Amino acid sequence: MKRTLSILLLALGFSTGAASVQADASEELSRLLQPLGSISGNFRQTLKDQKGKTLQKSSGNFSVQRPGKLRWKTGEPFPQLLVTNNKKLWLYDPDLEQVTIRPVDNRMKETPALLLGGKVEDIRGSFSVESKKGAYYLTSKRASAPFKSMVIRFDKSGLPAAMTVRDGMGQTTDIQFNGLQANPKLSSHMFNFKPPKGTDVIRDE
């Protein structure tokens, strides 16, 4: 089965009314996310193909700190660890004993990581936002973006409860969050990565 990592590691309306609705939805979403300077918790994710067939299920834990710091650890069946300190990104595969290192650039603004760990003000620049029945629907403004759309839902306490991401191939990843902590104190060491001895290092610069 193909290895995947869904993380985290985000048609403008032409009428005045549509633009107003999208602006209001962007502001609502920003108000929900702005107080969350950091988040940590667990997740369960399910990858499905275009027809809705389940391709892979996995779970793990994550920690996020604004701006742009993320640690996303996926367990079995294909363990992976993604770490970024907002300048550099590490993708570590313990089974392959391999880590890929690349600089963080503007492409990060077009991924779901933007919602949890990026700058709130970047959301409107990268996505059109609509609100329906308590859920926020984000559509990428760029046709070539790696993720076409996503939906995020919040629980009664204002924390993210679930996220659905659709990529350019029509595959969807459903992510359920649980055990979340709002604004925990997180060490800066969590967002840096030192490869274990013997790990193959691939630099994608």
Summarize the structure.
By secondary structure, the chain is mainly beta. Helices cover 14% and strands 44% of the residues.
Description:
With 205 residues, the chain is mostly beta strands. The protein is 14% helix and 44% strand. The longest helix has 18 residues, at 16-33.
Query: What coarse outline follows from CA principal-axis ratios?
Result: globular
Helix content: 10-25%
Distance between the termini: 28 Å
Strand content: 35-45%
Largest sheet: 12 strands, mixed
Number of strands: 12
How would you write the strand order of the largest sheet?
7-8-9-10-11-1-2-3-4-5-6-12
Helical stretch tally: 3
Uncertain parts: 4-21
Mean pLDDT across all amino acids: 82
Radius of gyration: 17 Å
The sequence of SSEs as H and E is HEEEEEEHHEEEEEE
Q: What class do helices, strands and sheet pairing give? A: mainly beta
